[in-house]
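agent> call fold_tool(seq_1)
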Amino acid sequence: MDNIKMAKSYLRQAEERLKHAKEALSDNYAYVIRQSQEAVELALKASLRIVGIEPPKFHDVGPILRRNANSFPEWFRKEIDKMASISRMLRREREPSMYGDEELALPPDELYTFEDAKTALDGCVFVLNNCKKLLDEVEKCNKSNCWKGCEEDFHKTSGGVGHLK
């Protein structure tokens, strides 16, 4: 399987969800949260693929990122805890943002405020920007084959796996 090709596809899908989340920010807060969650999930799964790690089939991959932090470059490692926290927060809102809260008999539209939606969207942008930067870095290395002699821990620990197609 071509991990870089899959990662690019995941990031393209995440970008599309982010676009729809931004469009909905003025009046559909639950939708913003749902789309932000899906975008974060796709972006973080793309980051795992970039370094050659098969993403799990569950929604919050934050613990997998933390467990495999040494597979990533230093700048990305510094952001893993924040990205994992964003992923965990949005994962908890995945179902309520679509189905509402059945115990409270509240539909999704009554659960969230503008601040909730803005927080979700801001977190999504943060995660997506970091994951796109990771892909850009790897693609530059692929073009120059820098990983073969690179001194970056990221390249040593992944054995270049994240760079290979």
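agent> call fold_tool(seq_2)
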Amino acid sequence: MKKQLLTAAATAGILFASFTGTASAHELIYTVQSRDTLWKISQANKISIADLKIWNNLTSDTLYVNQRLSLLAPHSHVTSYTVQSGDTLWKISSRFNISVTQLKTINNLASDTILVGQVLKVSTFTSSTTAPQTTVANAQMVINEANKYIGTPYLWGGNTPAGFDCSGYTSYVFAKVGITIPRTAATQWSGLKPVSNPNPGDLVFFETYAPGPTHVGIYLGNNKFIQAGSSGVSIADMTNTYWKPRYLGARTVIN
């Protein structure tokens, strides 16, 4: 089942479905629809796939339903930022509406390590349209990282690739992309921002062996989430007979 889910997502070129999107001719912003691919969008708008990926900071061909794509090339205004205590590349990139990859490239950074007092060039991209949303890029980073550990065994209290429990897995994945979240399911639930409906990259919570939030996973879209359960890290369906009645809600750190 796990292989079938991944194969289906790769074949479609899109992880999420059942949403109607539109293209705005006035703003030149396109909203991704179910079954869209970069090739289909590029053909319809007479834009190359390479340009679409560059203009929208895409690192893969995967798209999200409701994702907004710019159909115009951006231009940039370069400013600088002095690193403060507690900063990460992710926090800085989110503040200035650019991706971590862009931030590293324009500053010639070979790693994610930054120092307090370090001055970074910050390029904010604008055009006659709305700039590409960094939340989409950050969600993709989280999902890409999460997928690396499919098949990792379950381990109570585990928070490394040697073995994960549910919240050890989510906190590890987010830490790998520069985002610090609380360690346990209960503190992730209480300490993060509630959202009424999860978006890709958000955390989804369930009540399992005890009252309250006792299980957590990362939402992928189309009612799928990735989680460290008793059989290890795998993708599950939120609408099945086990998970649906146990769903409590969602929290976000990237939207």
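agent> summarizing second result for user.
Residues 141-252 form a domain with the endopeptidase fold (from Nostoc punctiforme) fold (CATH 3.90.1720.10). Confidence is low (pLDDT under 50) at residues 1-27, 125-134.
agent> awaiting next instruction.
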